[in-house]
Design goal:
Layout lengths: L5 H17 L5 E6 L3 E7 L3 E8 L5 E5 L2 H4 L5 H12 L4 H21 L2 H14 L1 H14 L3 H11 L13 H23 L3 H18 L9 H20 L3 H12 L4 H4 L7 H22 L4 H13 L3 H9 L7 H12 L3 H13 L9 H13 L3 H15 L2 H13 L3 H19 L1 H13 L3 H11 L3 H10 L5 H16 L4 H21 L2 H15 L3 H9 L3
Antiparallel strand pairs: 1-2, 2-3, 3-4
Helix pairs in contact: 1-3, 5-6, 6-7, 6-8, 7-8, 7-9, 8-9, 8-10, 9-10, 11-13, 13-14, 14-15, 15-16, 16-17, 17-18, 18-19, 19-20, 20-21, 21-22, 22-23, 23-24, 24-25, 25-26, 26-27, 26-28
């Protein structure tokens, strides 16, 4: 820690956490110094345990049990400890040597204690701290080979009763509960370390179920239970590597667990056990997975497991069978199948599946647009331009949106058929506008604007109606050619804005005033605008920001 400096802390933490850490220096207490580490407590929302370490290359790392630190971030509490270390840098060697001396003294004292006195010390510690008692009870049960005793202690450690109020562990107590449950993980790992890995496998599986059983009764906003679940998953793999359990039994458990809700906590992937399972175990894994899927072909977990196994084994036919057993009504599954077949170098089958997805849909307005896009692209790539146009035409006819029109236009232009398709599409929209009201008329106006057919767009807006945004676009794009029409639009839009306040409204109003001035310029009536602007100023003079904006723009 001798070379620690503020620049290192800022680099590790980032500017925001560094600045916030400055305010926590006074909250640091209980500083302990080792050869390559320094630890302390920092009082924040709760009291957090914080440690900074240096590796053999002099690289600094830190751990804090606050929520932000648990996510792997260099938090403000670590910054506060680092700043404390910098402030005490001259004294760190003395503190380090003092810590070593205390440790040597403690070791020597314990070594010299008679057996009965040592037992009395241990008993006192056990009596004063329930956590210490539980750890010793677990160690004792394990040492005696008392599997029932270990199991009993583990059940106690996962019990939410001591932390729950009205049957629920609140956010403030979730960390303490997770620390207690973590003792069970440590105990199970110790079984593996003491050549009792088979017992560890049995207990870790029970512990996973115990953890799953409390998820609905703990406020796990900070993800403590998820971390316990991940630790249990690691513990299970370690125990299996040590015990080498029967491959078929392991395969059966992995499949059963993958289909259980508890798998969300552990994220155990059966394929991570491939080396332990061997050929016999992997065959059993696939057999159990297939049996589960056949029993529930639409289950998400069953499908996901089958897909994972098929992908790992590059078994495209099994992958297709899983998808085909539960086809989505909108054709989404068809496009997934088509992509898988293409990736496997089977384009003919891929095209057949995509076409089937369209053919089996009675209403193209509900079809997944990704399927339409995929099939249109494949038609184009295979020079089937007429089919691409037909598909885009049918899709546009079903949905009648601006995007559908644009896609039809692109396909028809590629096939040199746009003039004919354009008139047919526009005619369809005009019929809709006359029958179905404002929504369809707005699509018609959008389409005409997108085609840059401004005159026809004016006519459609006048005949069928348009929303304010479309009227504004029409006015903006034709101020020079139709200044009187544009002026009428701008004047109508000004009215509501004069009754509003706020800089956003003022900016919109000034933009309209500039357009109004331009229309008067084209009409040759600048004096009319000057009179209009003067009247507006008199009416709005209390809005100082509006007056300032008008002055800035010469209005």
């Amino acid at each position: 820690m001798d070379g620690l400096n503020k620049a290192d802390l800022r680099s590790l933490a980032g500017a925001r956490s560094f600045e916030r850490g400055l305010g926590y220096v006074d909250a640091v207490s209980g500083v302990e110094v080792g050869d390559h580490w320094i630890r302390a407590s920092v009082r924040g929302t709760e009291r957090y345990e914080v440690e900074l370490t240096l590796d053999g290359r002099g690289q600094m790392a830190g751990e804090c049990d606050c929520p932000y630190g648990q996510e792997g971030n260099f938090c403000k509490h670590l910054v506060a400890l680092g700043l404390t270390a910098i402030a005490q840098q001259a004294d760190l060697p003395r503190q380090r040597e003092s810590a070593r001396s205390r440790a040597r003294g403690l070791d020597a004292w314990l070594a010299e204690l008679p057996r009965e006195e040592l037992l009395a010390v241990v008993r006192d510690e056990i009596a004063e701290d329930p956590n210490v008692r539980r750890r010793w009870e677990l160690r004792a049960a394990s040492a005696r080979g008392d599997l029932a005793g270990v199991r009993s202690r583990i059940r106690e450690l996962f019990d939410v009763g001591p932390f729950a109020q009205y049957g629920y562990v609140e956010y403030a107590d979730a960390h303490a509960y997770a620390e207690q449950a973590g003792q069970a993980v440590s105990a199970i790992r110790s079984l593996t370390a003491s050549d009792r890995a088979a017992d560890a496998i049995e207990l870790v599986r029970e512990a996973i179920q115990l953890l799953a059983g409390v998820t609905e009764t703990v406020d796990d906003s900070d993800g403590w239970l998820g971390r316990i679940g991940a630790d249990l998953a690691d513990t299970h793999r370690e125990a299996c590597r040590a015990a080498c359990p029967d491959p078929e039994e392991l395969a059966h458990w992995l499949v059963t667990h993958a289909l259980d809700d508890a798998s969300d906590l552990t994220d155990i992937d059966p394929l991570d056990y491939e080396g332990l399972l061997g050929e016999r175990g992997m065959a059993a894994l696939r057999r159990h997975a297939v049996d589960a899927w056949k029993a529930n072909r639409t289950g998400w977990a069953e499908k996901h497991l089958m897909q994972s196994l098929a992908q790992a084994g590059r078994d495209i036919d099994t992958m297709i069978a899983v998808y085909a057993a539960d086809l989505a009504p909108n054709g989404h599954t068809h496009v997934l199948i088509a992509r898988e077949l293409e990736a496997a170098g089977r384009p003919v089958e891929a095209l057949e599946w995509a076409e089937r997805g369209i053919r089996e849909r009675d209403d193209l307005s509900t079809v997944d647009t990704a399927l339409v896009d995929h099939l249109t692209d494949r038609y184009s790539q295979n020079e089937r331009l007429a089919d691409a146009v037909a598909l885009r035409r049918d899709h546009f006819s079903a949905r009648r949106t601006l995007l559908g029109y644009q896609q039809l236009r692109a396909a028809a232009r590629a096939a040199d058929r746009w003039p004919i398709e354009r008139e047919t599409a526009r005619a369809l929209l005009r019929t809709d506008a006359g029958k179905e009201g404002p929504h369809r008329s707005r699509v018609l106006v959008d389409v005409l604007l997108d085609d840059e057919d401004i005159e026809t767009a004016w006519q459609a807006a006048a005949e069928f109606g348009a929303h304010d945004g479309q009227w504004l676009t029409l006015a903006d794009q034709s101020r020079a050619s139709r200044p009187a029409d544009g002026l009428a639009v701008y004047l109508r839009l000004v009215g509501p804005l004069t009754r509003q306040t706020g800089n956003h409204a003022y900016e919109q109003l000034v933009s309209l005033l500039l357009s109004i001035r331009d229309c008067h310029r084209h009409l040759g009536t600048p004096d009319d605008f000057a009179a209009y602007a003067t009247d507006l100023r008199n009416d709005q003079k209390r809005k100082r920001n509006l007056m300032r904006l008008m002055d800035e723009h010469g209005l």
